User: Fold this.
Amino acid sequence: MRKYGTVIAIAFLLLVNAFVLAGAAFNRSGVPDAAVLLTERELPGAYPLYYNRENSGVSLRLTWSHYGYFWNRYPLIDFEWFDQRKLEAIGFDCAVSPASTGAYEHYAKMLPRKAFAVLEYEGPAWERWRANGEQSIAEMEEDVKTRKKTETDLQNAKKWYEQEIKAGSRLFVVDAGNDPALLRKQYSDNHKYIITPAVVRIQHYAESRDPSGNKRPPRLMGSVSDILTDEIHVPRAKRAALDALVSKTGTTPDYSYLYSRDREPRYAVTLQYGRRYEPWIAEIRPLGAQDGK
Amino acid sequence: MNISLTKDQAQKRADRIRAFRDELAQLEREQALVLTEDQRRRLAAHHDRMLRDLAGAYDVDTSGEQKQLSWGMRIVSFLGAVAISAAVFFFFYRFWGLLATPAQVAILIAGPVLATLGVELAARKEKTLYFAAIIGLVAFACFVLNLSMLGLIFNITPTQNAFLAWAIFSFVIAYTYGLRILLVAGIISLVGYLSATVGTWSGCYWLDFGERPENFIAAGLVLFGVSFVPHRGYSDFPPYYRIFGLLAVMISVLILSNWGRISYLPFSSRGVEYVYQTAGFTASGLVIWMGIRRHWPGVTNLGSTFFTILLYTKFFDWWWDWMPKYVFFLVLGLAALLILLVLKRLRAISREAQP
Assistant:
């Protein structure tokens, strides 16, 4: 072993690296599976950029989640399509009836699974989100008249909604499945739909009422909890627009953009996905006032 | 000295010579055995020559002071290796963003390759292998950085296969140079790979393998099984497989005996805890018995420790809330005395079996 060990170790290192690089090259070969033009709204900096002296790398984070409810009325993100049938298709064992005793504990124990999620950009899900927001504000205005809510509540809600319209992500999860090729057939517009590896979970919902007051029986619903490659590296060659932002404005494109919501997006990103459904940044360009994004 | 030995065997021989010399001196003082001057001179010359040869060929410790210094050197070399590995990581993180992608990839590949060559160079220059061990650990760290950063640069979907690659590399270096620190790195990486892979068999996403301790039980049993594979020329390696394998199993059983909710078993949490408590006590007992039978002191100690920890956690569960605290700790102390008596009895039985 001593005679050949070093050679074996080095050969193994080179082989593994060749395999990894070949996989990356395969992913980027041929026609991209998706090529979507996003903005800083959907791809803010992954962490405070340029402030972190210990890490000179730059990444953008794919932002897509809108959990919660519009002031307890309408869900911010709609997972109604992720019903029991779809959960079973993905591979979750839903044999225990949601209405049975112990169903909550049974399903709470289930571990998440890997699947593929479909992200829709500025499509019907975004329009529904806007409509729900407007409806919620209209209902809140009525609540203010009947003193169920205060004027301050209404102004805060309007401010939050306007900020989301101006600066929130327009990416929504609209479907999930195990077969990415089948999903691509169903969502063929690859400038609007991204198919990407994700982690999906099963959740048990007890008996409840919908926004209209109708009774809903216990049910199972899925959710997409993580996109597996949501932190996307920015190669040195593509950083010019981000570097210019830092030098021109003195502010950096960082994750706090998501929280401040006080400005228009400053750059557009062409994000491509390859044959292994792994992303890369094709281009970053600065956005001007004329872009209207 | 013509016989080919491993370093471990050579060290044991040197230890036996030292112990024999001490015992012979004591026997002479007690007048139980007195050698003639000629015998004493020839024995001393033979042992001196033996120790010189062993120290020269295998760099063994020939005195108690040397042994203590060797332990110190091992600790220092480990800490040094960890510090240098951290320096490599942070150095790369500091400057990688300023480089173009081809340069990043070239540096990431060159790092572990050069470090591996460094291990070979160090092993040829210095037979104690302390420096080879340091550089070997740095090579491992460079390989971890290599694959992690390639994943980041090319946005590759993470998989557990990286653990397997790290394990294989570590084992190659460990078995090439007899470096136990690389063996441990390989074992830990292998446990990660096996546990994650077993986890995926149930359909879950691999990164959630930690949420089911049974995944580690499977990995631990595999490692324990590997310890029975003949290791000619590496006699000090099987104990590491045994101990880490048992640790993986015992820690998982300990966790599941207290948190049954995170088990694969389709029982209630309480039911799972009863199952694993029973399994834990049984397994600890079996491990102690096996350690005594096979003369594996590390295994016996591990079994005793886990038996005691398991017992104490159950005492806490049953009695902490309602028992007066002084009574609780008194019970713990009495339990420890009882365990001590049992172990003493087992030792006496072992002594009778092997005088």
Chain B touches chain A through 50 residues (CB under 8 Å). The mean pLDDT of chain B is 89. The first helix of chain B runs from residue 7 to 29. Chain B has twelve helices and no strands.
